[in-house]
């Protein structure tokens, strides 16, 4: 306490010191004193209130403790009295055991008396029930069966209550009512038969189906009541619970499965279209059954059964199982397509689950897939693998068939525009079209994959096609008289290339979506390149035919005979024009290229004749005459090729101007201007070489050795640069094996 007092004094001194720090605060001492007095009074009042509250609580607690003590004492006295009374009543309870046994026997006898009539009439009721079952009076038969079971179960329950361990009496009762279980089983068989034929029964006699459902409902109620009693007493009659409701749905499920499996009427050996027929029968059966269920059967069952939803799930599961079985078989490509089309499209379409008569109970958006994604993927992989093999075989067969036509003695057929063609493009793309149409029925993704596959196989096929065209050409070159219609069929093969290109574009436009077109189009350039290569080779072989026939007449050019008045160019023009009249059966893109190439080749052969030094002019008069003849023949050739190209609306390249330019060099009369003229020639035709210039000067016959050497050396110092669009014409012209030194002599 002293320590507390000291701390209180120290605190008070500190507070007073804090309040009286300035002289003017002394005037407020009285005010401070009164304020502190009020605070002290307030604190004392709170302390008194707290102490009073605690004292009241202690007083209340002591009072409750005294009351509890009194109650405990009263309870002890009551327990002692109860214990005394219980010890005195033990003998009384023992004396009442005989009364208890009498009560049990009385209860059993009361049950026996109550069922006495039924007990004596059991054989008669059994016969009546059997007759009613055979007559189809199922409700009445079930009523009598319930009476029998009720009598049996009541007697057995009373026996169980009296002496649950007495198996002899229980067996006696059970054997006496032994026919009851047989009647129950017989009635159940009749119920299951009706349920198995429920879709037919509901149309002809819905009352019978309603009776079956009522019987099952009664048995369900009895099952529930007996199971509830079992929880209390532990007793359950024989044959319970029957669970007829569960068995009903099991019967319906087994019936649906059998019905679906029974729709397969054919096998692959007896009918190639067995699967299509099987799936179509399934579609019709399932749709009809569900419509009947929705419109008729739901009226025969309690709403809580949700019979339509239950049967819908049963049908869906049975279909899924059947589709899995079909998918596991060794299906052919067309059968895989039929199965996937049915599973992925037909099943959810308006022809089946999406039918208006099933809405809104059936929502195709929430139906589980009949086949898992893995199974679908495996089927698609198998289909693509089989389709690849089939396409390869089909293309090979189509090519072999087309090759047989190439050697026919009759001309190939022409299309509506008069262009020769064979049946190959039509056969190939009819096959592609059919497979794409089939794939489109399954999914967009499969359609794209099939299109890519077709383009890939087209690449491989075109390589074989190109080899066969080459062999066809080589065979003809060995024996030009065979085959008889070689030119016409080569024209048809060229046209096939254009037809194939157009068909590919058409297929892509028809079956390819814009968002996938870019990826698929990567294979297009290689296909186009192969087709162009085949067509160009065909065009080259036809041009080779022309130049083989022109070989003799080309050899007359720039010879003495030519200078004296040969009609070689006339024959060349007539021959070329005659061939191109036949080539009118070639489609325009390739015919245009052939005319351009023929133009270049004819001019090139003409220039080759000039540079082969077949003639050397001896005088200016000869040079003038030869140059003028070259100019006339150049104009003649220009007229020919302009005429041939007139249908294309474009001007021909000025290859014939090359002949005129060379003629100008030959015609020049002033040798001093020869360098200038040759320089002009070289600037216009950058691919001209030294040996070409030497041979040209040799043809003139008047250029000295020094002049030749000076011209060649000067031109070598500044070779001309070719423009990007320049078409070389001198590059492939070989000069006879004389070196420049010999030409200069």
Automatic annotation (TrEMBL):
Gene: EXOC3
GO BP annotations listed: exocyst localization; exocytosis; protein transport
Stated family: Belongs to the SEC6 family.
Recorded GO MF terms: SNARE binding
Function recorded in the entry: Component of the exocyst complex involved in the docking of exocytic vesicles with fusion sites on the plasma membrane.
The organism of origin for this protein: Balaenoptera musculus (Blue whale)
The keyword Cytoplasm belongs to this UniProt entry's keyword annotation: yes
Keyword check for Protein transport: yes
A GO-annotated cellular component: growth cone
InterPro entries in the record: EXOC3/Sec6 (IPR010326), EXOC3/Sec6_C (IPR042532)
Subunit structure: The exocyst complex is composed of EXOC1, EXOC2, EXOC3, EXOC4, EXOC5, EXOC6, EXOC7 and EXOC8. Interacts with EXOC3L1. Interacts with BIRC6/bruce. Interacts with MYRIP. Interacts with SLC6A9.
Keyword vocabulary terms for this entry: Acetylation, Cell projection, Cytoplasm, Exocytosis, Golgi apparatus, Protein transport, Transport
Name this protein carries in UniProt: Exocyst complex component 3
Primary localization: other
Record's subcellular location: Cell projection, Growth cone; Cytoplasm, Perinuclear region; Golgi apparatus; Midbody
Pfam family, one: Sec6
């Amino acid at each position: 306490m002293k320590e507390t007092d000291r701390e209180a004094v120290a605190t008070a001194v500190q507070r007073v010191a804090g309040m009286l720090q300035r002289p003017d605060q002394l005037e407020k001492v009285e005010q401070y004193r009164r304020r502190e007095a009020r605070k002290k009074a307030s604190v004392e009042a709170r302390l008194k209130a707290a102490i009073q509250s605690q004292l009241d609580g202690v007083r209340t607690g002591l009072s409750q403790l005294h009351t509890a003590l009194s109650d405990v004492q009263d309870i002890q006295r009551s327990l002692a009295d109860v214990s005394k009374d219980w010890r005195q009543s033990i003998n009384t309870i023992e004396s009442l055991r005989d009364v208890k046994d009498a009560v049990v026997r009385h209860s059993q006898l009361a049950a026996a008396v109550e069922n006495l009539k039924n007990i004596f009439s059991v054989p008669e009721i059994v016969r009546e029930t059997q007759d009613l079952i055979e007559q189809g009076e199922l409700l009445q038969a079930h009523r009598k069966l319930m009476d029998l079971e009720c009598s049996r179960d009541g007697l057995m329950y009373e026996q169980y209550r009296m002496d649950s361990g007495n198996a002899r009496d229980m067996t006696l009762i059970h054997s006496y009512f032994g026919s009851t279980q047989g009647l129950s089983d017989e009635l159940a068989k009749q119920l299951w038969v009706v349920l198995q034929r429920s879709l037919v029964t509901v149309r002809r006699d819905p009352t019978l189906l309603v009776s079956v459902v009522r019987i099952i409902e009664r048995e369900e109620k009895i099952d529930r009541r007996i199971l509830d009693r079992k929880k209390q007493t532990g007793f359950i009659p024989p044959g319970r619970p029957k669970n007829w409701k569960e068995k009903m749905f099991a019967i319906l499920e087994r019936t649906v499965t059998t019905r679906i499996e029974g729709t397969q009427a054919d096998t692959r050996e007896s009918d190639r279209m067995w699967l299509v027929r099987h799936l179509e029968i399934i579609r019709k059966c399932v749709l009809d059954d569900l419509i009947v269920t929705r419109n008729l059967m739901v009226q025969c069952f309690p709403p809580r059964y949700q019979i339509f939803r239950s049967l819908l799930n049963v049908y869906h599961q049975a279909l899924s199982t059947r589709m899995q079985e079909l998918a596991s078989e060794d299906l052919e490509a067309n059968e895989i397509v039929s199965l996937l089309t049915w599973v992925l499209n037909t099943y959810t379409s308006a022809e089946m689950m999406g039918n208006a008569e099933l809405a809104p109970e059936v929502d195709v958006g929430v139906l589980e897939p009949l086949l898992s994604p893995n199974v679908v993927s495996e089927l698609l992989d198998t289909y693509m693998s089989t389709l690849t093999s089939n396409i390869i075989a089909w293309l090979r067969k189509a090519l072999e068939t087309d090759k047989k036509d190439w050697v026919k003695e009759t001309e190939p057929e022409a299309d509506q525009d008069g262009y020769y063609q064979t049946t190959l493009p039509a056969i190939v793309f009819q096959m592609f079209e059919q497979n794409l149409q089939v794939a489109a029925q399954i999914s967009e993704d499969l359609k794209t994959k099939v299109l890519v596959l077709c383009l890939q196989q087209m690449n491989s096929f075109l390589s074989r096609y190109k080899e066969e065209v080459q062999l066809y050409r080589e065979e003809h070159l060995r024996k030009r008289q065979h085959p008889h219609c070689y030119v016409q069929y080569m024209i048809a093969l060229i046209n096939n290339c254009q037809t194939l290109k157009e068909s590919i574009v058409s297929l892509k436009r028809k079956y390819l979506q814009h968002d996938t077109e870019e990826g698929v189009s990567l294979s297009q350039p290689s296909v186009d390149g192969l087709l162009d290569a085949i067509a160009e080779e065909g065009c080259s072989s036809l041009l080779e035919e022309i130049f083989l026939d022109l070989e003799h007449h080309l050899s007359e050019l720039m010879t003495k005979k030519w200078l004296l008045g040969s009609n070689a160019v006339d024959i060349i023009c007539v021959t070329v024009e005659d061939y191109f009249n036949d080539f009118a059966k070639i489609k325009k893109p390739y015919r245009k290229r052939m005319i351009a190439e023929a133009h270049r080749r004819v001019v090139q052969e003409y220039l080759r004749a000039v540079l082969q030094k077949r003639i050397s002019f001896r005088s200016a008069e000869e040079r003038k005459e030869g140059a003028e003849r070259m100019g006339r023949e150049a104009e003649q050739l220009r007229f020919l090729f302009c005429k041939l190209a007139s249908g294309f609306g474009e001007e021909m390249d000025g290859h014939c101007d090359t002949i005129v330019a060379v003629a100008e060099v030959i015609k020049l009369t002033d040798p001093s201007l020869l360098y200038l003229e040759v320089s002009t020639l070289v600037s216009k035709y950058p691919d001209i070489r030294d040996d070409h210039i030497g041979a040209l000067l040799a043809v003139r016959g008047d250029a000295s050795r020094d002049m030749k050497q000076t011209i060649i050396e000067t031109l070598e110092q500044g070779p001309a640069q070719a423009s990007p669009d320049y078409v070389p014409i001198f590059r492939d012209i070989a000069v006879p094996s004389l070196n420049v030194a010999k030409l200069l002599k």
